[in-house]
Structures are given as structure tokens and as C-alpha cells.
Amino acid sequence: MEIRLDKKSALKKIKALVLSSKTEVETFRTKLEKNFKAEFLPNRVERNEKSFFGVKCDVLIPQVCASSRVVVYIHGGSFVGGSRESWRSFCSCFAHAASSRVVVPEFRLAPSYQYPASIEDIECVMRGIIAEANAAKLTDDGAPAPEIILAADGSGASLAYAVLFRMDEEKRKNISKLVLFSPWLDLSYDSQVFSEKKSKDKVLNPRDIRYAAELYTQASNLSSVDVSPLKASESNFVNFPEVFIQCGENEILLSQAQQMDDLLTCYGIECTLDVVPRMFYMFQMAGDTLLESSFAVESAGKYVNKRADPTDKELMERERLIKENNITRD
Predict the structure, then answer these.
(1) 0.85 exceeded by the pTM?
(2) Which of 81, 90, 153, 223 can bridge 188 by disulfide, Cβ–Cβ 3.0-4.6 Å?
(3) How many Cα atoms sit within 13 Å of 200 on the Cβ side?
């Protein structure tokens, strides 16, 4: 009985993340901020503020933090809502789980600023982050290679793919991972989502997705790969990072996540699809009422912490240290 009550409370909260086709944008924004704005950050995470080419960002720093790793997090909110403030608590939990600095940009929102304004703002942030990483490579020769991770949820996933697709192939090499929670991946009119007759999803429905998409951009753009990444071809995925997708079993968008998993695998890109049983859209943001939320964020954090194979440079440095310190191998 206690678990059912928790789920009921969590569902009520999570519904505030989705713009209903019956709701005015300003009403939605106010309700979202009221439900998710947190006075204190969890896990003793510290917050600083930084701007990249005029785009203000939160920089969330956990107590245990990999100095060479940074996550750029693109919040959801149906393209029209959400902010650094309303995502601060969740991103702090993710920063703690991933032992990483998390940068959360305050990008422009539709409908006042339609596509591609939000993408352009995030591109500014990525340009600054990549420049910092490249500078670190030059100034600290003995340090681990900087690692940049892009993460997003909901409608933010469409923005994340667009940012990667718009990077040239060399710049894309700077991004090691793409981490997605309950992603929106196909907003085109022929998306299977819009023909769904029945769904277990108690948070998101096709009507609301279409409403948000049409506020975000003109109908003629909805089949663009910048808006619907499932429409992308193999040429869009050159030097693409490995991908982690986490969603609930009862999400209406689960089929899109599965299609993206198949597409990436077909193009030789590593993809991990983590489907959490009996869970609903963006359940990860209900950590104060649902145990499954905390476990899911921890799982995503473990993925981020997964060590890549050592580079030639790291192997050479390891050999040097072994010789200098007379370490005997077993």
C-alpha cells in the first residue's frame, strides 16, 4: 500500500513536467517551477554560475568529483518550460551519482524563441566547454584527457542530438558519451507515437507531444533530423559518441528508444538501453517519493563513471611510473 501511495504522489508531481494541450504556456511554466524548484541542493553539492558566450549556466560540483570530466545537461520541459532552477535538484543528484561537474545552460524557450534558438544557445555552451577542454590538454600534459559528456531528458534529447549533428566530425570526437532520460526522438507527423490507440503511460500522451512540437517549430521542420533524430541517416552519426538511454517500461516513447537503440547498433555505435520495469515517463525526477528514481539515477551515474580503455598516452605513462617506482607485476 505504501508503494502505491508513493507512486500516486510521484505521478502527480511528474505530470507537471509535461505541457498539456489544454494549458496556457505561462500557467505550465509557473506550475513546473513551483513543483521542482528546490531551496537546498541535495548531497552537499555546490553551485557556481558561469556564462559561455552570453549563455548563463549553473555549474554543479559534487563533493567527490572527477577533475577531468564535465557533463553538459539539457533540461526537458516540452520545449517551452523548465530552467536551471527547476532542474537544479535533479541535476545535483545526477552530479553526485556521476561524480562529475554538471553544467546546466539557461537556454531560450519556445514559443517566444522558436527552433533553432535553444540549439544555438547550447552550441555556444558546448563551444566554450570544448575550448576549455582543449586548453587543459595543452597546459597539463600529465593530467587525464578531458572528458565531455552530453546529457538530456525529454524534449531536451531532441536538442542534444541536434547539437551533435550540427558539430563538424572533428569536434564531435570531443564528446565521449550521450546520456538520455525518457527522450523525445521523433516529432514528425508520421511518428508511430501519434497513431497509438492505447498506452500505459499515465504522464505523456500524443496530443501533448504534438502541441509542444508545434509551439517549438513550424510543421515543415518536424521531419528534420535537428528535431526528429530518428530520421537521421548513417552520415549523421560519423564520430558519434556512445549512447545510454534510460526510460520506464510504461512510457509511450519506449518504442522510440528501442528504435534508436536499433539504429545506433546498425551504424556500429555502442548503445545501452536501460528499461526500468513498471515505471512511467521521467520517473527519475520523483526521487523524494519513489525509491526507483534514486536507483535509476545511480545506474546512470555508474554508466558515466565507466572507465574507457586507456589511451596510448595513458599506457605509456603507466609504464613510466611502474619503472620509476620499481613496481613488480604479478
Answers:
(1) yes
(2) 223
(3) 10
